[in-house]
TrEMBL record:
<dbReference type="GO" id="GO:0000987">
    <property type="term" value="F:cis-regulatory region sequence-specific DNA binding"/>
</dbReference>
<dbReference type="GO" id="GO:0045893">
    <property type="term" value="P:positive regulation of DNA-templated transcription"/>
</dbReference>
<keyword id="KW-0902">Two-component regulatory system</keyword>
<feature type="domain" description="Response regulatory">
    <location>
        <begin position="12"/>
        <end position="125"/>
    </location>
</feature>
<feature type="modified residue" description="4-aspartylphosphate">
    <location>
        <position position="61"/>
    </location>
</feature>
<dbReference type="Pfam" id="PF00486">
    <property type="entry name" value="Trans_reg_C"/>
</dbReference>
<dbReference type="InterPro" id="IPR011006">
    <property type="entry name" value="CheY-like_superfamily"/>
</dbReference>
<protein>
    <recommendedName>
        <fullName>Transcriptional regulatory protein KdpE</fullName>
    </recommendedName>
</protein>
<dbReference type="GO" id="GO:0042802">
    <property type="term" value="F:identical protein binding"/>
</dbReference>
<dbReference type="GO" id="GO:0000156">
    <property type="term" value="F:phosphorelay response regulator activity"/>
</dbReference>
<dbReference type="InterPro" id="IPR036388">
    <property type="entry name" value="WH-like_DNA-bd_sf"/>
</dbReference>
<feature type="DNA-binding region" description="OmpR/PhoB-type">
    <location>
        <begin position="137"/>
        <end position="236"/>
    </location>
</feature>
<keyword id="KW-0238">DNA-binding</keyword>
<feature type="domain" description="OmpR/PhoB-type">
    <location>
        <begin position="137"/>
        <end position="236"/>
    </location>
</feature>
<keyword id="KW-0963">Cytoplasm</keyword>
<dbReference type="InterPro" id="IPR039420">
    <property type="entry name" value="WalR-like"/>
</dbReference>
<dbReference type="GO" id="GO:0032993">
    <property type="term" value="C:protein-DNA complex"/>
</dbReference>
């Protein structure tokens, strides 16, 4: 999305949906807002286009003719961290959780408001942008591990630590707010999307995973601190 010289370029969106009217509406609205748009009508086409065109964000329907959208998410997550916004008629929490656990960044249910979808898309593109220079700290070091916010990597004891997209997103929000309490609701909405705010069990599960991977003593964490009933705080 930005050139080697740092000049911003037009974000590229890959729309994946087998309903022509939805694809047409999205293409018209996105192009009107100066996005470059590619469109695929099935999973295989989506994976091929993503590899060829390297989009900045993917808008993905789950009900595709050749494969389930969750398979597309897993296929993309095998090689890219591109933000993925699921656009689906499936409303059950189990199906949302499956898509999010596979690596989706957000979930919008059909029928949807175009303004809301575009707002979520803008937020996804913003979150994915590298923090080039400025006053932002891009390399955060603790006694146990190092977080590289630009390369999106964590190193512990000289080895890269493999994090899922959701684990990374949670870590990134906490690290960028180092020393500050981040509320449960803010974390849920930043990591899982605006429609989340009460699913605190998600946070408990993923915080336990981060502590297991990064803390010297996960049962007595030094870096990922729980403020009971309020939220979490990252301390260096």
């Amino acid at each position: 999305m930005s050139s080697p010289g740092g000049v911003p370029q037009t974000p590229r969106v890959l729309v994946v949906d087998d309903e022509p009217q939805i694809v047409r509406a999205l293409v018209i609205n996105l192009k009107a807002r100066k996005y470059d748009v590619d469109a695929a009508h099935d999973g295989a086409g989506a994976l091929q286009l993503a590899a060829a065109r390297h989009p900045d964000v993917v808008v993905l329907d789950l009900g595709l003719p050749d494969m389930d959208g969750v398979e597309v998410i897993r296929g993309l997550r095998g090689w890219t961290r591109v933000p993925i916004i699921v656009l689906s008629a499936r409303h059950s929490s189990d199906e949302k959780v499956e898509a999010l656990d596979a690596g989706a960044d957000d979930y919008v249910t059909k029928p949807f408001g175009m303004d809301e979808l575009l707002a979520r898309l803008r937020a996804a593109v913003r979150r994915a942008q590298p923090t080039g220079g400025g006053d932002d700290e891009v390399l955060v070091e603790t006694e146990e591990f190092t977080v590289d916010l630009v390369a999106k990597k964590v190193n512990r004891g000289g080895r890269d630590v493999r994090l899922t997209p959701t684990e990374w997103h949670l870590l990134e929000v906490l690290v960028r707010n180092s020393g500050r309490l981040v509320s449960q609701k803010q974390l849920l909405q930043e990591v899982w999307g605006p429609s989340y705010g009460t699913e605190t069990n998600y946070l408990r599960v993923y915080m336990a995973q981060l502590r297991r991977k990064l803390e010297a003593d996960p049962s007595h964490p030094k870096h990922f601190i729980t403020e009971p009933g309020m939220g979490y705080r990252f301390e260096k």
